[in-house]
Amino acid sequence: MKIDILTIFPSMFEGFLSNSIIKRAIDKKVVEVNVIDIRPFSDDKNKRVDDYPIGGGAGMIMKCQPVLDCLKSIKKENSKVILKSPRGKTFNQTLAHDLVDNNDHLIFICGHYEGLDERINEHVDMFISLGDYILTGGELASMVISDAIIRLIDGAINNDSTSDESFENGLLEYPQYTFPRNYLDKEVPPVLFTGNHEAIRKYRLKESLRITKENRPDLLENRNFTKEELKLLKEIEENNDNPKWLTDALEK
Q1: pTM of this prediction?
Q2: In angstroms, rounded to a whole number, what is the distance separating the alpha carbons of residues 148 and 21?
Q3: Four-residue CA torsion sign, 209, 213, 216, 217
């Protein structure tokens, strides 16, 4: 996959692209990421990319000419142009998968100042919002979306690392632990040391259901529960923390 990011602040992406999973994915050629400075495309002698809003109003508006000329220089027939905007659908894991599975070339336009000239929107294929709040510019939003997308591309990270993550199966992720076994009188659940893979799987599913029910009950509203999930939910509702399947696993 190729990701092009159009911005007037390219230096903001230096740390993002040079660390951790993103850098490794780029080094392995799993993804190509280009950050393109819009400013050199301005036909203004001082390379201005903004101007006052016609009709009056606060702030400055990004001009269409430099943005669209920049876009024209890289856009191909298969490109998908994305603008972060309150008009867009809220970004989530399902949308992240869709962008990875159905596109080879994504172009993110980063707005700034008070907004973009409305005529730029005519060249946008999709609007995406991170939520009902306003950021200073589209740079941070582009990093968030790119991060979520890149880690889903085959070869970026181990597939086992993403399969059980929050939202992948419609639930929040179960608790994770490492050593020491006991720290500040808080002990790792004994079932995780049993080696009983089925009991561990069931324990983790139950904890995912519990955490989701307590923190994001909205995720359960339209869920088609399996018979196993319904049984585990009943245990949760009855505060049954020692069901037979768990005690059996601990006794062996």
Answers
A1: 0.85
A2: 11
A3: positive
